[in-house]
Write a structure and sequence with these properties.
This protein is an all-beta fold and 194 residues long. The chain is 0% helix and 28% strand. It has no helices and 14 strands. The strands form six sheets. The chain has a three-stranded antiparallel sheet, with no helix packed on it. Strands 7-6-8 form a three-stranded antiparallel sheet, with no helix packed on it. A hairpin with a 6-residue loop joins strand 1 (9-13) and strand 2 (20-25).
């Protein structure tokens, strides 16, 4: 009796998740039978899984189904722009308020924060002067705090005035710096003419 020479394959799956693991080349037994190893089936997937998807063996073992697969992905909280632990199992969708999109990297020197734009499904940088001291450009007095997400008013700056304020200062837009205000000349009383 001659053994078959054409290659035959089975398709393996993870015994815990039933996730598709790949093709396995079969070897015929001495009597010419093609026995399936444990955790394999002879049903081939009809198409490959897409991005963030995996193939999972159906409960009855008769077909492969395409399911969500976000395991081993970095997840970000859309409310806080911080990383969240990924404990998703095969087939679980992304939770509400979680994205795969990484927020912008901020170094703390710019007055911005990451805000999730739910309609465009992307991060946007918005102004954040809420934790910064602000000064009125007119006279270097402290300005009213600006809420997060609100742009800095044109009359206010976060650039600190000089520490020595024994003279009046104002903010010069052209040089984007504080400049000394010239003190007015004292008035000299005029004497009546004889």
């Amino acid at each position: 009796m001659s053994l078959p020479t054409e290659p035959r394959f089975a398709h393996s799956y993870d015994p815990d998740t039933r996730a598709y693991m790949g093709k396995v080349r079969l070897q015929p037994s001495p009597d010419g039978a093609w026995n399936l190893p444990d955790f394999t089936v002879d049903v081939a997937p009809r198409q490959p899984a897409g991005e963030y998807q995996a193939l999972r063996l159906a409960d009855d073992g008769s077909r492969w189904e395409t399911v969500a697969d976000f395991r081993n992905c970095m997840l970000w909280d859309t409310r806080t722009a911080t990383a969240v632990p990924n404990r998703l199992a095969l087939g679980q969708p992304l939770p509400k308020d979680v994205t795969l999109s990484e927020p912008f990297k901020l170094d703390g020197t710019t007055a911005q924060y990451n805000a999730w734009n739910a309609s465009r499904l992307e991060w946007a940088l918005l102004p954040d002067y809420s934790a910064r001291p602000l000064w009125n450009k007119r006279d270097a007095s402290f300005a009213t705090p600006v809420p997060r997400g609100v742009a800095l008013p044109a009359t206010v700056t976060d650039l600190a005035p000089p520490g020595d304020r024994s003279y009046p200062v104002t903010f010069d837009e052209a040089s984007t710096a504080w400049v000394m205000v010239a003190a007015p000349e004292p008035e000299v009383p005029t004497l009546p003419q004889p």
